[in-house]
Amino acid sequence: MAKLELLQSINAHKGIVWNVSWHPNGNIFASCGEDKVINLWSKENQGWAVKTMLVDGHQRTIREVAWSPCGNFLASASFDGTTAIWDKKSGQFECNATLEGHENEVKSVAWSPSGQLLATCGRDKSVWVWEVAGDDEYVCEAVLNAHNQDVKKVVWHPSLEVLASASYDNTVKIYKEDQLDSDWNCVATLESHETTVWSLTFDKTGERLATCSADNTVKIWKEYKPNNELGVSVSKESSWKCICTLSGYHTRTIYDIAWCHHSGLIATASGDDIIRIFKEAEDSDQDAPTFDLICKKYDAHSQDVNCVKWNPTANNELVSCSDDGQIKIWKFLDE
Amino acid sequence: MSSRFSGALQLTDLDDFITPSQECIKPVKIEKSKSKTGAKIKIGEDGYFDLSSGREQKLQKVEITLADCLACSGCITSAESVLVTKQSQEELLRVLSERKYTDSKGVTRDVSLVVVSISPQPLLSLALRYKLTAQEATRKVSGYFKKLGADLVLDMTLAEDFSLLEAQQEFLERYRNQQNDPSGKFLPMLASSCPGWVCYAEKTHGSFILPYISSTKSPQQIQGSLVKQHLAGRRELQPSALYHVTLMPCYDKKLEASREDFYSEIYNCQDVDCVITAIELEQMLSGEDKSLADIMDGELDWPWDESDVKGVKGHIGSGSGGYSDAVFLHAADQLFGATDPPMEYKNLRNPDFREASLEKDSQEVLKFAIANGFRNIQNLVQKLKRGKSPYHYVEVMACPSGCLNGGAQNRPYQGESTRELVGQLYTMYRELPQNEDENPTVSRLYNEWLSGKHSDKARAMLHTQYHALEKSDVALNIKW
C-alpha cells in the first residue's frame, strides 16, 4: 500500500498559508501567506525550522513565492500589485528589485528554466514576461492580454522558454516568443475545463501538462506536433489535446497540482482537505493514458489545502500548506 | 468578444467575478419622493414600473454616457459598449441619412454641414487592402464619404502641422524651464497624441506622470478645433450644426473625441462627433458588397483659404506622425545651432524602443526616444519612477510599431505577419508627399484665427489638459 507519512507539522503563519517553494537543493523551502511574511525553512537536527523571516516586503497578502533555478533569488507575488525579488548578495536576504506594472493583485510568479525570464499574472487578466537585465534590473518583455478573466497561475516548461497560464476564464493558454519581432504571442488555448483552472504542472519532458480545476477534475494534455502519428490535426506549430480526465476522485475544488519530475507521481491539493497521489498505470497508452489513485490522505489539513510541492531532489518528500495556517512535510512511501 | 482597445486600456481595473457592464460603480442619483415604506416595483415587458404611489409610474432607465465612463476610475470596458452606440458605422449612416444627431448631452440637433477628416494611417491601410495607391485611395475615400452624404472631406495635414509646431515650441519652453528649475517636472516631455497612452497614464500613474505629458493637442483634436471653431465661423454656422467625422487608425481615438475637455460649453458640442476607423470603413464597404476600387472618385476639399495645398501628406520620422524627429531637429537647431544633424536611432531591447541623441563637443546634449507598445510604456514609466530616465523627449504610442499598426487598422491576412504589413505601410508612408517649408496656411491661420503664436487663443485651441483619476475605494471595488 502506498501512503503519505507525516514527517512534520508546523504552525507556520498567522492565517492562511498560500504557497510554498522548494529551493533547488531541496534543503530549504520558502512559504508565504496572508500575514505578509515570507518564511525560509531549513532542516535542523530534529526537523524543519524557520531560518529567516522576510517582513516588510509587501503591504498585502503574499500569494506565491518562487526560487530561481540557481537558488540565489526568491521572487514573491503579492496582492499589493507588486512582485519582489529577494537575494542575499549583501549577506542577508533583502528585497533588491520590485516589479511594478500589474493594476492590482499579482497571483503567481515563475522563473523560466534558464532563470533569465520571469512570468507574473494576476487579477487584471494579464500575463507579464520580464527579462533579467542585470544589476537588479528587470525589463518588461511582454504584456499578454489573452485571457478574459483573472489569471490564477503561470508555469514554465521544464526546459524550454514556453509559458503556460491558467485562468478563471476556464482556459489554459500557452505562449512563446516570436524571435523575429521579439514579442510574445499566445500559441494555444486549452479548452475543456468547465470552470476556473486553478493550477497546472508540466511533466519532466514538458510534452504533457496536468491541470486542475474548480470543476473537481484533473486533466492531462499532450502536445502534438505537425504530422504526428496519431493524425491529430495541428494548427500553427503544435496543438494541445486533452488525453485524459480524472473525474469522480475529488469532491471539491482542486487548488494545486504537482507532477514529480523524478517519480512521475501527481499530487493534488483540494478544498476537501485531502491530498491525493495519482500514478500512471504500467501499461498506460501514451495517447490515452490511465492514472490510478494510489493514495488518499484524508484530513491532510483541517481546512483547504492550497499548495503541494515535491522536493526536487527525488527523496519523495512532499510539502503542503493550508488555510489552517499550517505547513506539513510528508514522505511518500510505496510499499 | 475580445476588447478592441489597445492593450494599455484593456489593463485597467477589471473584475474576477462580474463582467464589466455589471460592475459599474458610477453612483446614480435617483429622484425620490418620500414614501411610507419600501418601493414596490413591477417588471413589465417594456420596462420597470414603480407602484408605490398607487399608480404605475415608469422608472427611468439609467443611462451611463461615455463621458461618465471616462470621468470614472472604475472599469474601462463598459465604455466600449457605450462607445458602440455613439460612435459606430450605424450611427454615422443614420446621421448622414437623417441629417440629425444626438450629442453627448443627449440633445438632438439638425446637421447643416457634414465634415469628414482623413488621417494618413487608415488611408494607407485601406490603400494596401484594396491595392490602390495612396492618391487613388484618397479619391475613393473622398468619393465614398460624399456619396454617403458628407459635404466636405478634408485631409488633416494642417492639424498635423499645427500639432508638430506646437510640440516643438512646447519642448523649447520645457527645456528652458528645466534649465531654470532643475527640480521641476518639465522633462522628459512625453508625446500626447496617443489617447491609449494618455488614458492609461491618467488612470494608473496620475499626478506622477501627467506633468511630463505634452499639453499639445493631437492632430485629431486640433482638426476638431479647426472645423468646429474656425470653419463654422467662416461658413457662418453654429458649430453644433456641423457634424464632424474623423477617419482614424485606432478605437482609442473614439475615447479621445468623447473627452469632456473637447466639449465646448459655449457652443454645446464636441470638436469631433464620430470617429470611424479603417476596419469599420472596410466593414461598411463589404456590407454593401463593394470594393473601395469600385467607388466613384471624389475630391478632397480645401475650405481654409485661396491656396490649394490639399492632400494627405507624410512627415519625416516615424509613421505615427514623426513627433520625435520634428521636435529633435527643431531643438537641435534652436538650442544648439545644429542644422540637420543626423538622426540615427538605435534599438534598445526590442525594435519598439529606440533612442537617438545629439552630441556637441563630444557631450550628449539631447537624448530622444520612441517607445511603442505597452511593454515599452511600462519600461519607460519604471525608468521615470526610479529616476533613471536619460531622455529629454519620448514619442510614446500604445500600439506596437505605432499608429501604422493602430488597433483598428486592417489586420494582416492569414499567413501574413503584422511585421510585414507594417513594413509595407511604412514604405507607403515614406512615399507620401511632404510639405517642403512651413505651410503658408498655417502661418495665415496663426495670425488670422489665433491672433498670433503663443496667444491665449492659440493656447486654448491647440493645447489641452489631463486629469489624474484617483482610485476610489467604493465597497463594490473591494476584491478578494
Characterization of this structure:
The complex is a heterodimer of chains A (335) and B (480). Chain A has strands spanning 2-11, 17-22, 28-33, 38-43, 48-54, 62-67, 73-78, 83-87, 94-99, 106-111, 117-122, 127-134, 137-144, 151-156, 163-167, 171-178, 183-191, 197-202, 208-213, 218-224, 239-246, 254-259, 266-270, 275-280, 291-297, 305-310, 317-322, 326-334. Chain A has 335 residues and is an all-beta fold. Chain A is globular, with a radius of gyration of 19 Å. Chain B is an alpha/beta fold and 480 residues long. Chain B has 16 helices and 16 strands. Chain B has helices at 7-10, 66-70, 77-86, 89-98, 120-129, 134-148, 157-180, 195-209, 219-234, 252-257, 278-287, 323-336, 374-385, 418-431, 440-448, 456-462, and strands at residues 41-44, 47-50, 57-58, 100-102, 108-110, 113-118, 152-155, 189-190, 242-248, 263-264, 269-270, 274-277, 346-347, 353-360, 363-372, 393-397. Chain B has a five-stranded mixed β-sheet, with helices on both faces. Chain B starts with 6 loop residues before the first helix and ends in an 18-residue tail after the last helix. The interface between A and B is medium-sized, with 25 and 27 residues.
Strand order of the largest sheet of chain A: 1-28-27-26
Low-confidence stretches of chain B: 12-23, 473-480
* Total helical segments of chain A: 0
User: Per DSSP, what share of the residues of chain B sits in E-state strands of 2 or more residues?
Assistant: 5-15%
Helix content of chain A: under 10%
Helix and strand content put the structural class of chain B at alpha/beta
Span of the ends, CA to CA of chain A: 5 Å
Instruction: Pick out the low-confidence regions of chain A.
Output: none
Give me the strand/helix succession of chain A.
EEEEEEEEEEEEEEEEEEEEEEEEEEEE
Percent of residues in helices of chain B? 25-40%
Mean pLDDT of chain A: 95
- Report the structural category of chain A: mainly beta
* Spatial shape of chain A: globular
Shape of chain B: globular
Distance between the termini of chain B: 26 Å
Strand order of the largest sheet of chain B: 8-16-15-14-13
Give the assembly state of these chains. heterodimer
Number of strands of chain B: 16
Number of DSSP strand runs of chain A: 28
Mean of residue pLDDT of chain B? 85
| Biggest chain-to-chain interface with counts | A-B, 25 and 27 residues
Family (chain A): Belongs to the WD repeat CIA1 family.
Function (chain A): Essential component of the cytosolic iron-sulfur (Fe/S) protein assembly machinery. Required for the maturation of extramitochondrial Fe/S proteins.
Organism (chain A): Pieris brassicae (White butterfly)
Protein name (chain A): Probable cytosolic iron-sulfur protein assembly protein Ciao1
